[in-house]
């Protein structure tokens, strides 16, 4: 085989490989598994920031799932859909006046010391509930606490949302 024929055969092989490879590469690689691990670890870390004297007497309720915005064009999931991992934790600190607020302050101090930026706060429930938001490296965290009110439980709710990634082969995600 001549040198020119070998070069042409080699280039044809490269073109075929690129063409076939391009047909199978429809999405960016999903980082959802990685984000799940990180989100769950961050949620555990935040619960651990609650001072011992306020520590929950029962294990926190945890919800951890992949989430996505509903596709407005098609209800069928696509590997290209943008998704994120979300962990919601419901904590009941020791029941005493200002326990929820004090636990939230401790979590806030830990987040701020770790480089998180306080980005937002809102009040709901006619001012009884306050949600403080924090952001860092495309991650979002919300700490919701309640003001002391006679006869009401003091709770702290934590939400961790990962950056967005592609769905990939994850079929368990809900909108």
Automatic annotation (TrEMBL):
Residues 58-79 are annotated as: Disordered. Keywords: Signal. Residues 1-22 form the signal peptide. This is Lipoprotein. It comes from Microbacterium sufflavum. The lineage of its organism: Bacteria, Bacillati, Actinomycetota, Actinomycetes, Micrococcales.
């Amino acid at each position: 085989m001549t040198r020119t024929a070998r070069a042409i055969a080699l280039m044809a092989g490269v073109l075929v490989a690129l063409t076939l490879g391009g047909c199978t590469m429809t999405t960016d690689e999903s980082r959802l598994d990685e984000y799940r691990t990180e989100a769950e670890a961050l949620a555990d870390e935040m619960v651990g920031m609650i001072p011992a004297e306020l520590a929950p007497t029962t294990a926190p309720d945890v919800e951890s799932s992949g989430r996505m915005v509903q596709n407005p064009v098609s209800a069928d999931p696509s590997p290209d859909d943008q998704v994120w991992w979300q962990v919601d934790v419901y904590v009941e600190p020791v029941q005493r006046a200002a326990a929820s607020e004090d636990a939230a302050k401790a979590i806030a101090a830990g987040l701020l010391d770790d480089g998180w930026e306080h980005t937002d706060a809102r009040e709901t429930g006619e001012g009884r509930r306050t949600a403080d938001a924090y952001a860092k490296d495309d991650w979002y965290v919300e700490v919701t606490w309640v003001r002391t009110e006679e006869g009401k439980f003091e709770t702290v709710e934590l939400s961790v949302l990962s950056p967005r990634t592609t769905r990939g082969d994850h079929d368990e995600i809900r909108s």
